[in-house]
Amino acid sequence: LRDRQWSEPAGEAASPIDRARFRRELLDALAREYPRWRLERVSHRSDREHSFSAWYTRGWARQGGTAWAFLGLREDENPAAADAVLAFGLIWLDWLRNRAERITVSGLKLFLPPAAVEVTAHRAAYLDPRAIRVEIWNASSLTSSSPPARVDLGDYGNVQTRLVPRHERQALVDRHRNLVRDLLGDLGDGLDMVPDASGRALSLRVLGLEFAHIEGDLAPRVGGVSRVRRARHQTAQRAQPGSVSRVVSPAG
Fold it and tell me: What angle do CA 140, 108, 70 make, to 5 degrees?
């Protein structure tokens, strides 16, 4: 981290008054939520020797021989602060653990604005909980009427997926519908036409069993033609045409 440029762009440095105000608001919120814990080592001063940034209010909450580190981020800080908050939080936790005598620093709590929650939660979800316990709190408000809300890391860590409708598969069915009618006549009305996963072939099925298939688009090739022709011939010989399930034998 020391090799990276985490400094604020010229003209965009946050006001010390704003950071001091956020520090007071965060400490007040923590005191309300954790009244039996002592808030110590609190600072928002920069310390480049130890890679502590003025972007964050840092400290620990201690009760007897147990403590946990915390880091708070103001909503109007530089956008780079949201991207780096987990790294700086882990540095702060490591620093405390290395200097805490007879005190167990159990984990890290991050109090973040909504814009920083998602990217940080996705990263924190991959940390080994046996080595470190990280909690993320949505600190969109630090008032007594709207305290920080804990984020469930179980909702993060996996790439979001969604199923997109395959419109081209339905288009394949529509394009070959006339071909199927030419081959089977009215029998085609009782068939299932199922596109394959590639969207380039069409399976003709009766009661779920394939008896013919069509491949290609511009110059389609029909497989199982003999069964199709036999089906039409059998239909023509019947005075009362039966259903497709009686005329076309899937095993034939």
Answer: 55
Q: Tell me the three state secondary structure of residue 15.
A: coil
Give how many domains the chain has, as a whole number. Answer: 2
Q: What is the CATH number of the domain that holds 56?
A: 3.40.1350
Phi, psi of 214 (to 5 degrees): -125, 130
pLDDT digits 0-9 by tens, 42-66:
998 888 888 899 899 999 999 999 9
- Enter the tokens of residue 111: 């109090």
From the number of C-beta atoms within 10 Å of its C-beta (0-12, 13-18, 19+), residue 225 rates as exposed
User: 242 pLDDT exceeds 70?
Assistant: no
* DSSP helix/strand/coil, 143: coil
Residue 11 inside a domain? The answer is no
In a domain, 1, yes or no: no
Q: Which of 159, 167, 162, 249 is nearest to 211 (CA)?
A: 249
Using CB atoms within 10 Å of the CB of residue 143, give its burial: 0 to 12 exposed, 13 to 18 middle, 19+ buried.
Answer: exposed
pLDDT digits (tens, 9 = 90+) for 213-234: 787 766 777 776 566 666 566 6
Q: Are 203 and 194 in contact (CB under 8 A)?
A: yes
Domain of residue 234: give its range.
167-247
Length of the chain: 252
Determine contact, residues 42/26, Cβ cutoff 8 Å. no
Kindly give, in sequence order, each residue whose CB lies less than 8 Å from that of residue 41, ignoring residues fewer than 6 positions away. Answer: 58, 59, 60, 96
Query: What's this model's pTM, rounded to 2 decimal places?
Result: 0.58
